[in-house]
C-alpha cells in the first residue's frame, strides 16, 4: 500500500540526501566523526522507510524476511570485529554492495531492454559491480591472511589481464547493442575474473588503497543503479560515495608517494611494496624497560608515533596512561600521526580517541615533522614503514617518494617491536640500526606496562 504522495517522497528523499552530505562533513574530523556516522545512519534508515511507504512492493514478506536475516547476521558479526580488522570489514561490505548492484541490474534488464540509456547503465553496473565484488573478496583474503599478502604475479599476467579487459568491453558493447541476457551473464563472469586479476598483483601496504578504490567503484555502480531504477536518491548517494572514495584513494596514494596506476600495476615493473616477511640478522641496540623509562623520565619533550602494532596489541589505554604520567612530571608529550598509519586513514585517531587522548595533542605529519629536531625522545610504538628513511634516501626502494614522519631527526629514538620482521610493506628499516636508536622487544602492551611502572618509580 502506498502511503506517501510523490511530493512527500521527494521531500523526504531530499532530507536523506542532506543527511548523507552532513555525514561526510562530520566524518572529515575526529571530533565530529561519531555525530557524522549517526547522521548518515539516520539518512539511510529514512531512505529505506520512504521506499516501503512510497512503493507498491511485491513479495513483501520475503523482503522483510531477508532484511531480518541480514540484520541477525550483520549485527553480531560487526560487534565481533576488532578495530584492527576494520579494513577487512570495509572490504566485505564494499564487495557485497557492488555484487548486489550488479544483480539488481541483471534483474532489471528485461524491464528496460527498450531504453538505450538504461541498458548502458545496466552494462556499466554489471561490469563495475562484478569487479568490485571479486576484487574486494581478494583484498579481504589478503588482509585476513587467508592468502599471501605479497603481490601475486604469474607469467603472462599483463597479457591475460588485457585480454579479459578487452573481452569485458566487447561484452558490454554486445549487451548495449542487443540487450541480450546472455551478454549480461558473460559480462558478469568476465567482470568477476577481471576483479580477481587486477587485485592479485597488489600487495603489502597498497592493499588498503585498492579497498578505497573499489569502494569508489561500488558508489558509481549504486549511482548507475539509480538510473536503471529511476531512483534519484540512489543516484545522489552513489555519486557521493563514488566521489568521496575517489578523493580518498588519491589522498592515500599521494600519502604513499605513488600514483593509483602505480599502486595497481607497480608489481609488473617491480614498483609495488613487496610484502616480504624475512627477518634481518643485522645487529641492533636493544634495551630494557627501565632504561627506556629513564630516557623518557628525564626528557623535556617526547613525540609518540603510533602504528598498527599499537592497535594489534590493544595498547592504546596503556599508552595514554604513560603519556598522562609523563605530563604530570612536566614532560611535553605529542602524538605524531601519519595519514596512512595503521591500515586506513584515521585508524590511529579513532584508536587514541577510544583511550581519551585529547585531540589537542594529536599532530598531523606536516605539523609534527618540524618538531622532531627539537624532540628529546621519539617513541615509535608499532609503526615501521611510515618512519622508514628509505622513502627519502633509497631511489630503488618500493616506498621511495612516500612522505614519512621525520623520526630520524630526534635526539633519541625508541622502537617498540615484537621482532625484527619488516613492516607491512616488507622493507627493511635502516633507522633501526642508527646509533641514536634503541629497541625494546616484546608485545607493545606488555612493554608499555613495564615502562609505565618504571616511570612511576623514578
Automatic annotation (TrEMBL):
<keyword id="KW-0997">Cell inner membrane</keyword>
<dbReference type="Pfam" id="PF02233">
    <property type="entry name" value="PNTB"/>
</dbReference>
<dbReference type="InterPro" id="IPR012136">
    <property type="entry name" value="NADH_DH_b"/>
</dbReference>
<feature type="transmembrane region" description="Helical">
    <location>
        <begin position="36"/>
        <end position="54"/>
    </location>
</feature>
<keyword id="KW-0812">Transmembrane</keyword>
<feature type="transmembrane region" description="Helical">
    <location>
        <begin position="6"/>
        <end position="24"/>
    </location>
</feature>
<comment type="similarity">
    <text>Belongs to the PNT beta subunit family.</text>
</comment>
<feature type="transmembrane region" description="Helical">
    <location>
        <begin position="152"/>
        <end position="177"/>
    </location>
</feature>
<dbReference type="InterPro" id="IPR034300">
    <property type="entry name" value="PNTB-like"/>
</dbReference>
<keyword id="KW-0521">NADP</keyword>
<dbReference type="InterPro" id="IPR029035">
    <property type="entry name" value="DHS-like_NAD/FAD-binding_dom"/>
</dbReference>
<keyword id="KW-1133">Transmembrane helix</keyword>
<keyword id="KW-0472">Membrane</keyword>
<feature type="transmembrane region" description="Helical">
    <location>
        <begin position="183"/>
        <end position="202"/>
    </location>
</feature>
<keyword id="KW-1003">Cell membrane</keyword>
<feature type="transmembrane region" description="Helical">
    <location>
        <begin position="118"/>
        <end position="140"/>
    </location>
</feature>
<protein>
    <recommendedName>
        <fullName>NAD(P) transhydrogenase subunit beta</fullName>
        <ecNumber>7.1.1.1</ecNumber>
    </recommendedName>
</protein>
<comment type="function">
    <text>The transhydrogenation between NADH and NADP is coupled to respiration and ATP hydrolysis and functions as a proton pump across the membrane.</text>
</comment>
<keyword id="KW-0520">NAD</keyword>
<feature type="transmembrane region" description="Helical">
    <location>
        <begin position="234"/>
        <end position="253"/>
    </location>
</feature>
<keyword id="KW-1278">Translocase</keyword>
<feature type="transmembrane region" description="Helical">
    <location>
        <begin position="89"/>
        <end position="112"/>
    </location>
</feature>
<feature type="domain" description="NADP transhydrogenase beta-like">
    <location>
        <begin position="11"/>
        <end position="453"/>
    </location>
</feature>
<feature type="transmembrane region" description="Helical">
    <location>
        <begin position="60"/>
        <end position="77"/>
    </location>
</feature>
Amino acid at each position: 500500500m502506498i502511503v506517501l504522495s510523490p511530493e512527500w517522497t521527494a521531500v523526504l528523499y531530499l532530507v536523506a540526501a542532506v543527511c548523507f552530505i552532513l555525514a561526510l562533513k562530520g566524518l572529515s574530523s575526529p571530533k565530529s566523526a561519531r555525530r557524522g556516522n549517526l547522521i548518515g545512519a539516520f539518512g539511510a534508515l529514512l531512505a529505506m522507510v520512504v521506499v516501503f511507504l512510497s512503493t507498491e512492493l511485491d513479495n513483501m514478506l520475503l523482503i522483510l524476511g531477508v532484511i531480518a536475516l541480514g540484520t541477525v547476521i550483520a549485527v553480531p558479526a560487526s560487534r565481533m570485529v576488532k578495530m584492527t580488522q576494520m579494513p577487512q570489514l570495509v572490504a566485505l561490505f564494499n564487495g557485497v554492495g557492488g555484487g548486489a548492484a550488479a544483480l539488481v541490474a541483471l534483474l532489471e534488464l528485461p524491464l528496460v531492454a527498450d531504453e538505450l540509456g538504461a541498458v548502458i547503465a545496466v552494462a556499466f553496473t554489471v561490469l563495475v559491480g562484478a569487479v568490485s565484488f571479486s576484487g574486494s573478496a581478494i583484498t579481504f583474503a589478503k588482509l585476513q591472511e587467508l592468502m599471501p599478502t605479497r603481490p601475486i604475479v604469474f607469467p603472462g599476467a599483463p597479457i591475460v589481464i588485457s585480454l579479459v579487459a578487452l573481452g569485458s568491453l566487447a561484452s558490454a558493447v554486445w549487451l548495449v547493442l542487443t540487450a541480450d541476457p546472455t551478454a549480461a551473464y558473460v559480462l558478469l563472469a568476465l567482470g568477476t575474473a577481471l576483479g580477481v586479476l587486477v587485485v592479485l598483483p597488489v600487495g603489502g601496504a597498497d592493499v588498503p588503497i585498492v579497498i578505497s578504490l573499489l569502494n569508489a567503484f561500488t558508489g558509481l555502480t549504486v549511482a548507475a543503479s539509480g538510473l536503471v531504477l529511476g531512483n534519484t536518491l540512489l543516484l545522489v548517494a552513489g555519486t557521493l560515495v563514488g566521489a568521496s572514495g575517489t578523493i580518498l584513494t588519491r589522498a592515500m596514494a599521494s600519502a604513499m608517494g605513488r600514483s593509483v596506476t602505480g599502486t595497481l600495476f607497480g608489481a609488473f615493473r617491480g614498483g609495488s611494496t613487496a610484502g616480504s616477511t624475512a627477518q634481518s640478522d643485522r645487529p641492533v641496540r636493544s634495551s630494557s624497560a627501565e632504561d627506556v623509562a629513564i630516557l623518557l623520565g628525564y626528557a623535556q619533550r617526547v613525540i609518540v608515533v603510533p602504528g598498527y602494532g599499537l592497535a594489534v596489541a590493544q595498547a592504546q589505554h596503556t599508552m595514554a596512561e604513560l603519556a598522562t604520567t609523563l605530563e604530570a612530571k612536566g614532560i611535553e608529550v605529542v602524538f605524531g600521526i601519519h595519514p596512512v598509519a595503521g591500515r586506513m586513514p584515521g585508524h590511529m585517531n579513532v584508536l587514541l580517541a577510544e583511550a581519551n587522548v585529547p585531540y589537542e595533542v594529536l599532530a598531523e605529519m606536516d605539523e609534527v615533522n618540524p618538531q622532531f629536531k627539537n624532540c628529546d625522545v621519539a617513541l615509535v610504538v608499532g609503526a615501521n614503514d611510515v618512519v622508514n628513511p628509505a622513502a627519502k634516501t633509497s631511489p630503488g626502494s618500493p616506498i621511495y617518494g612516500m612522505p614519512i614522519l621525520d623520526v630520524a631527526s630526534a635526539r633519541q629514538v625508541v622502537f617498540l617491536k615484537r621482532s625484527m620482521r619488516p613492516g607491512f610493506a616488507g622493507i627493511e628499516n635502516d633507522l633501526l640500526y642508527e646509533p641514536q636508536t634503541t629497541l625494546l622487544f616484546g608485545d607493545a602492551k606488555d612493554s608499555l606496562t613495564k615502562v609505565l611502572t618504571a616511570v612511576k618509580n623514578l
